[in-house]
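At this stage, I wrote out one protein, both as residues and as discrete backbone shape codes, and that material follows here.
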Amino acid sequence: MDYLAQFGYYWFWFGLSMVLLVVEAVHGRFLFLPASVAAVVVGILSNFYPYVAFPIQILFFVVASGSFIWMTRSFLNERAAKMQQQQKILEQRSYVGQTLTLVSPIENGRATQDLNGMVWTLRGQDSPAGTQVKVVDMGEGWLKVEPD
């Protein structure tokens, strides 16, 4: 412990961060990346506040890494659910045949529109906002539309 204190505890945290990054590169499930970020945060804080005892730093690391892992997991789960929803829509071709009102104009053959919380690229002939269009085809992230 005295050896770590001699050079500063922040070197330990930066080293731990590097080890966690290597483990993340091998593992690849975004479990060790948030813990690595937490180690960097504790290392920076340890550099600016060297008088904080090492056990307190460990406690802070445990709390910070747990929080970062929880935030990452919730973000990834939300993202996966949205991707599954979009895949289901694509498989069922749910929007083909529907009539939409353009929120933004189609310019140079393209526009974007939010449908049920997902942003789609609209492809079709130039039309002003407010125009009624019919979806005639769809693919991953795009809808082909024609004036109705």
Notes: Helices lie at 2-7, 9-27, 32-48, 54-92. The domain at 95-147 is CATH 2.40.50.140 (OB fold (Dihydrolipoamide Acetyltransferase, E2P)).
